[in-house]
Structures are given as C-alpha cells and as structure tokens.
Write a structure and sequence with these properties.
Pfam families: CarboxypepD_reg (PF13620). With 507 residues, the protein is mainly beta. Strand 34 (430-436) and strand 35 form a beta hairpin. It starts with a helix and ends with a strand.
C-alpha cells in the first residue's frame, strides 16, 4: 500500500512540475530604464520632473540629481516623456531589453514666458452650413502669431452620423486635403493652433454636408459575391500622386449580376446589362443608381459569351442598339418599338456595336464565330445597306473592345497578338490598337507600360479622344483586373485609376 501511495504522490508531483514549467513559458520579460534630465542651456540636473512613457508603463519623478529609474518595464520600444513647469516637454526614444538597463538623457528647453499664443483660427472652407460639398475637401483656415513663430495646427473632423473623430496634425500650412468622405453626411470640423511655447487656441466649430449624388465621370464594375457590381468613381489623373479609387459610389448591389455600364450624356442616364434568369437584358438607371428600368424583355442580349457582348446608345439617347446572335436590334429607351436593323450574311455572331457621335447612319461592328474567333471589325452604312471600311479581318486569335471617334476617323480596338485560339477563349497578349480610317494605313499599337503576361482589354476613348481608358489583367485564370488611363503623347505611359475593377466607361 505504501508503494502505491508513493507512486501516486510521485505522479502528482510530476504533474505539478510540468504545470510550473508551463507557467514559466508565460513569464513576462522585463527590463529597466534609467535616465537623467538636464537643463539644455546650463546642463544642470532638474529635480521633480514628471517621467512617463508611451506605451504607458510606470511613472517616476527625478531626484535632486535629475535622475530617475523605471523598473519592471516590459521589453518594447518606448518614448520617454519629461514634463516640468517652465520647460517645454521633452521626448527621447529608448529600447527596453530583457533583464537589461537602458539609459536615456533628456535635455529640456526653458519656455519663453513672454510668448504670445497664435490668434484664434478662422475657418474659411467649407463655409459653415455649406451643402453638396465634394467627397474630397481641401479644408482651409487662417491664423497668425504675434512673434511670427511657427504655428502647429490640429484639424479635428467628426462624422455626424457615426460620431467617428479624425485628427490630423499639420505643421505651418493653413490647408489640408481629406478624401473619401461619405455621401449625404453632416460633418463638424474645428482647428486648433499653437506654437512651441503656448497652449492650443481653438477655432469655432463649423458644419457642412456632403453631396447626395457624386458627380463622377467614371463607371465600372467590381466583383462581389461572384456577381458584377456597378460603381462610379472619380480621378485627378495626376501621374505624380497617382491617387486611386477616388469617390467610389456603389450603384447596384451584390445580389444581382450587373455589368457593362454606359452613360448617355444627353439623358444623364446609365445603361447596363443584367442577368435575369438565364438571359441577359438591357436596363437603364439614374446616375445615382435610382429609377431602374428594364428595356429588353422578349428578345434579350445574346451571342458569344456574356462578358464579350456589348451594346451602344444613340447620341441623343433615344435608342439603344444591341446584338442577338446574328442580328442587331434598335429599341427605344423606354423598351418600345424593337426594330431589326442588320443581320450577318454568313450567320456569324454580332458581339459589339458602336455609333459615331456625328454620323448616326454609320455602325461600327465586330463579328465572330461561335468560338469567339474569325473576328471581323468593320463599319456599315445603314442607308446604303453596305459595308464601308474593313478595319480587321483574317487574323488568328481574339479581338474586340471596339470604339470609334465622334468624327468617325479613328477606331480603337484590342487584339491578342499571340494569335492563340483555344477552347476556353484564353487571351495571352492582348494589346490596344488605333486604326486611321482616312489613311487606311495598318493599325498602330498603343505604347504602354504593360508587362509580358498581362492583357489590355475593354478599351474606350477618353471624352476628349486624347487618350484611352482600359482594363489590364494578367492572362492567368483568376487574375484580378485594374483600370488604367493613358494620355496620348504623355511621358507617362499609363496611370492606374481603379483597383480590382473592369469594364470601364468614361463619357
């Protein structure tokens, strides 16, 4: 029996030993900070200086030798702060090591007791009570200092809906830019000013409200929950700062598959495609995503691959043109009076259509076979019922993303110059080309900073026709696309504008 009790006792002792060992693994590793605080001018030690750290730990007060000790400090990087009446607050960085002693010396400067604080800041923009303020705001204010000391400002911005407070530290400047504010939201802002020796002087509090609908010129899609979602956005096209994803505004939700947005400037409406059941139909809506109307019903938009099909507005917004396999239809913007305007002679599919602004009798068409290949890009004169100019034919591989200038003198398109034709319609080296209709010269490839292995697709002329907007994406399946812009003749070949986005429209 004694032997049995002995083994039980030994086992319990062993378990306790293991528990103690496990506890030792969680022991906090600590060190010590020692330091001295001196007058910067006289180098005399300073007594009764309050010592704190950031991150917070223990506190201390200096003795008659200006010395202090902070024991049992967790190992980390710290900023040691020293405060004493009549002196400017001092800071020094220190690294605490395990079981070690870290030393620091802090020199404090005497405050100028005769110093005058800055004037109360005057808030200039946005004005108090302003409405429809853009989502990117350059806050502007004014203040002065009697001794012309440097002024340090703090801008405080509070969201009236969420009560979220943002603070921005600004040195000397009397302006500061804040972007990505929320739509239709009241904001409250205040600016405080101080110099090195004064307490902060605060401005009055001012209020403004952001606009309800953004004035965004760009429309595109993002993937969310395996559906395409339409967004609008803005950009400054500054190739130096290269700010992306500005003023993003969600127009459709992730519960529907909505894509290929196209704006009509005359109606200030946005057309788009949406999957309904197993079909793709044309819809229109306001530029803020409201007042959605379905345009097509009995004859949907159809052809080779949903994402490869496109449509277009008439310039005045009265009609929409869309393909249905080998046929091209025109339909009123209210969904009435669907009319067949063109059919291919050989049964090839019509995938894309565009109309130049100043020649509504001319169509720019792209056709292909049921695999997406044997591409033809050409113009067609409706009144003559005849082809006019062939831009591209008898080439291997994929091509598309057609667009035409207002005067119908240049055509933009994308072509996979690898010439690959495969069962999954994978493109390997898609590049953008410009074709001059008047000269009839061979199309010219647009020079960009594209990397090998990337495709450039879904290209459109800019509103001035002095550049293009396009999607760039890796040629591997599952690659994430981005939207770029390029200005013709610019030293900068391209400028990323929107991330994780595709199918751009810029009118």
């Amino acid at each position: 029996m004694k032997t049995k009790h002995y083994y039980i006792f030994s086992f319990l002792l062993f378990i306790a030993f293991l528990s103690c060992n496990e506890d030792t693994l969680e022991i906090e590793r600590k060190g010590t900070i020692i330091g001295t605080v001196l007058d910067k001018e006289t180098e005399e030690p300073l007594e009764n200086v309050q010592i704190t750290t950031n991150p917070a730990s223990t506190t201390a007060t200096t003795d008659e030798k200006g010395e202090f000790t902070l024991n049992n400090i967790l190992i980390d990087d710290y900023s040691v702060q020293a405060e004493l009446d009549g002196y400017r607050t001092g800071f020094e960085a220190v690294n605490v090591v395990e079981d070690g002693i870290s030393e620091v010396v802090i020199n404090l400067e005497v405050k100028d007791e005769d110093n005058q604080p800055p004037s109360q800041p005057i808030l200039v923009f946005p004005e108090d009570g302003a409405e429809d303020v853009e989502l990117e705001v350059q806050f502007t204010w004014g203040a002065s200092d009697p001794e012309d000391d440097d002024i340090f400002y703090t801008l405080k911005l509070r969201n009236g809906s969420t009560s979220e407070m943002q603070e921005f530290e600004i040195e000397k400047d009397t302006f500061f830019i804040v972007d990505n504010l929320q739509l239709a939201t009241n904001y409250f802002w205040q600016v405080s000013a101080k110099d090195e020796d004064s307490e902060a002087v605060e401005s009055a509090i001012s209020e403004f409200k952001t606009l309800t609908t953004p004035n965004n010129p760009y429309f595109f899609v993002k993937k969310e929950d395996n559906n395409n979602v339409i967004y609008s956005g803005n950009a400054d096209n500054d190739t130096i700062t290269n700010t992306v994803d500005q003023n993003l505004f969600k127009l459709t939700n992730e519960n529907t598959n909505s894509f290929k947005p196209k704006k009509n400037n005359t109606l200030q409406r946005l057309a788009f495609l949406r999957t309904v059941g197993g079909d793709t139909h044309l819809f229109t809506m306001n530029l803020d995503g409201t007042n959605v109307d379905q345009i097509t019903s009995t004859v949907p938009v159809a052809g080779f691959r949903q994402e490869q099909i496109s449509y277009t507005w008439s310039d005045d917004g009265a009609f929409l043109y869309y393909p249905y396999f080998d046929k091209l239809y025109r339909i009123n913007n209210d969904g009435s009076n669907r009319t067949l305007v063109y059919s291919t002679a050989d049964g090839s599919f019509i995938s894309e259509v565009e109309i130049p602004e100043f020649d509504t009798d001319l169509l720019l068409l792209k056709t292909n076979d049921n695999r997406g290949y044997n591409v033809r890009i050409f113009t067609y004169r409706l009144s003559a019922n005849a082809e006019e100019t062939v831009i591209l034919e008898n080439v291997d591989g994929a091509a598309g993303a057609i667009d035409i200038t207002a005067n119908a003198d240049r055509v933009l398109y994308s072509q996979d110059i690898s010439g690959s034709e495969n069962s999954v319609y994978r493109q390997f080296t898609a590049r953008m080309f410009l074709y001059d209709i008047a000269s009839g010269d061979p199309a010219v490839m647009i020079d960009t900073d594209v990397d090998p292995g990337d495709n450039e697709l879904q290209c459109r002329f800019s509103p001035t026709e002095g550049g293009v907007i396009f999607t760039r994406v890796g040629n591997n399946f599952g690659a994430v696309p981005d939207i770029f812009t390029k200005v013709f003749g610019s030293d900068i070949n391209d400028n990323k504008t929107f991330t994780k986005a595709s199918m751009p429209d810029w009118e």
